[in-house]
Amino acid sequence: SDDAPGPETSEALGVLHRVFGYDSFRGGQQEIIDHVVAGGDALVLMPTGGGKSLCYQIPALVRKGVGVVVSPLIALMQDQVDALRNLGVRAGFLNSTQDLDERRMVEAEFLAGELDLLYLAPERLRVEHTLRLLDRGQISLFAIDEAHCVAQWGHDFRPDYLALSELHERWPTVPRIALTATATEATHTEIASRLKLQDALHFVASFDRPNIQYRIAPKNEPKKQLLELLRTEHPGEAGIVYCLSRSSVEKTAEFLVAQGIDAVPYHAGLDARTRAEHQARFLREDGLVVVATIAFGMGIDKPDVRFVAHLDLPKSVEGYYQETGRAGRDGQPSTAWLAYGLQDVVQQRKMIDTSEGDDTHRRRLGAHLDAMLALCETVECRRVGLLAYFGQQSTPCGNCDTCLTPPESWDGTIPAQKLLSTVVRLKRERNQKFGAGQIIDILLGKKTAKVIQFDHDALSVFGIGTELREAEWRGVARQLLAQGVLGVEGDYGTLVLTDASSEVLNRQREVRLRREPEKASRTAKAKTG
Ligand code: ADP
Ligand code: ZN
After folding, report:
1. What is the CA radius of gyration of the chain?
2. Residue-by-residue DSSP string for 298-326
3. Which cofactor does it need (predicted)?
4. Closest atom of ligand 1 relative to the 16 alpha carbon
5. In the chain, % of residues over pLDDT 70
6. With a cut of 0.95, is the ipTM above it?
7. Is 363 exposed, middle or buried (0-12, 13-18, 19+ CB in 10 A)?
8. Cα–Cα distance between 315 and 244 in angstroms, integer?
9. Of 189, 204, 378, 496, which sits 20 to 30 A from 453 (CA to CA)?
């Protein structure tokens, strides 16, 4: 009958019990495993913490031969292999951190059929020596972990991954399973085509992480806001704070320590030993806060991370989702909190303008940023927006800031026109370049030294914006930038007009804005409790 497990299932289930000590499969694991055990190709899209590893580890144990796992996470290979060895699985790895002797030993084990799983860094597969080695052994499957690294559209492209398209040509009968936690429709299509996985079955798990409460707050005094979050909602709990730059990582970590919070920095500029030590402490200890650049976290499996905070705007929704996904793997309530401000938009647009690469590349970065901004500025449920980005439909969640405190939207056309008119005036006046700060001072009628120096108090727009407070004007400017109604140019973040600006100035376009909450939302507390 339909419910009777097939022979593969029972064997796979046996391995799940015996080797891994788990009772039952989760989510789509069983179908994926059955499919790969039977020799089929698979493309697996599953959120972080969903249980992707078993999807290739179990087929590798059930099928004859060695499962070859391609992973970019070189720093974690030793740990992964040690963990498997502790379970009695015969695992080894080959990467650039090993000396020749170590590599020779693993190669000998592989050839002697003494391995169940062999982890490889992608660049190993560019070396003819490795390919010939693989030819001489028996391969049960190829697992391509972090498969989004093959996609140029994605946010984490690695050129070494392109060579993986050749696996199929060289070993046409060996099943391949590609896995990723980040896949929009575009990335996912690109993975399938670059890896020549056209005939693979696609397994798409739900990307919803219901226990994570998503919150995006206007950035006022980010360190203070962060401290408040930690003290009131997550005292003594483990979490990750992401910052864009190494120096802000250092400063934020120092600040937290000075405030009595157990925090350490982590970024690529620290020496390897310090990094390893901080990572190990994070995994081992109960309530450590790691302040890090995005160099931290990939592949780290700590179940009780209670919050992930972003002090700077992530570059893409995919990155944001992956980073926040490190919270709450144990299913317990957790917070994803992001502080985001005008300067973030200015800075990121500037970085895109000055980035290396061709126009296509810049357009792609721009599209990633726009999607992230849309998520920040939405008045709808954050989760609905996030899941929609991954092509999944849902209904308002009741567990994000916009669901808990629905923001009002208001007609901001007139303030937008005032702000844009000021930009126009400054452009006409002389060839000077001014950022948002000066424009807002003019709107508010502030006679600052810089206003007086440039005679800006003589402009017709001087003081025409006193109906809004400074913070509100910053919100208006930020949202206009996010909507592309205002542009930014050059090194100093000079505000400039766009095509959409003229539509607003000519009254052909209405501007809807989100009302800024008075204070960073803490309304969610009850729900987190
Ligand atoms: P991913 O690679 O998708 O982020 P992992 O494979 O690291 O996720 O799995 C996340 C956690 O869930 C791990 O601690 C793993 O041991 C555990 N896990 C996976 N599958 C099961 C299962 N069927 N039953 C219980 N725990 C599981
Ligand atoms: Zn919601």
Report:
1. 26
2. TT---TT--EEEESS--S-HHHHHHHHTT
3. Zn(2+); Mg(2+)
4. 23
5. 93
6. yes
7. exposed
8. 10
9. 496
The count of other CB atoms within 10 Å of the CB of residue 406 is 12
Phi, psi of 204, deg, nearest 5: -115, 110
Is the CB–ligand 1 distance for residue 22 below 6 Å? Answer: yes
280-299 mean pLDDT: 91
Q: Token pair of 448, please?
A: 């600052």
For residue 299, is it left (φ>0), alpha (ψ between -120 and 50) or beta? left
Work out the pLDDT band at 522, boundaries 50, 70, 90: very low
Q: Is 148 within 8 Å of 191 (Cβ atoms)? A: yes
Looking at the CA of 325, name the nearest ligand.
Answer: 1
Q: How confident is the model at residue 79 (pLDDT cuts 50, 70, 90)?
A: confident
Torsion of CA 513, 518, 524, 529, to 10 degrees: 160
Q: What is the mean pLDDT of residues 181-209?
A: 88
Is the shortest distance between the CB of 52 and ligand 1 below 6 Å? yes
Closest-lying ligand to the alpha carbon of 179?
A: 1
CA of 395, nearest ligand number: 2
Quote the CA–CA distance of 263 and 288 in Å, as a whole number: 6
Asked if residue 476 has its Cβ within 6 Å of ligand 1, the reply is no
Tell me the mean pLDDT in the region 359-368: 85
Return the ligand 1 atom nearest residue 24 CA.
Answer: 23
Read off the pLDDT of residues 427-469 as tens digits, 9 standing for 90 and up: 765 566 788 899 999 999 999 999 999 999 999 999 999 999 9
Residue 233 has pLDDT above 60, yes or no: yes
Q: Measured from the CB, is residue 301 less than 6 Å from ligand 1?
A: yes
**Hey, whose CA ends up nearest to atom 26 of ligand 1?**
22
Residue of 15, 18, 31, 53 to mutate, ligand 1, most atoms within 8 A of C-beta: 53
Say if ligand 1 is within 6 A of residue 383 CB: no
φ, ψ of residue 144 in degrees (nearest 5): -110, 100
Yes or no: say if 325 and 48 are a contact pair by the CB < 8 Å rule. Answer: yes
Regarding the beta carbon of 51 and ligand 1, being less than 6 Å apart is answered yes
Q: Is 27 in the pocket of ligand 1 (CB under 6 A)?
A: no
Confidence of residue 4 (pLDDT cuts 50, 70, 90): low
pLDDT for 364 equals: 83
Question: Minimum mean pLDDT among 100-114, 149-163, 380-394: which range?
Answer: 149-163
CA of 482 to the centre of ligand 1 (A): 37
What is the chain's mean pLDDT, rounded? 90
CA–CA gap between residue 131 and residue 137 (Å, rounded): 10
- pLDDT value at 526 more than 60: no
Q: What is the pTM of this model?
A: 0.80
Closest CA to 143 of 200, 190, 182: 200
Distance 25 CA to ligand 1 centre (A): 10
Judging by beta carbons within 10 Å of its beta carbon (0-12, 13-18, 19+), is residue 181 exposed, middle or buried? buried
Q: How far is the CA of 173 from the centre of ligand 1 (A)?
A: 28
Residue type, 33: I
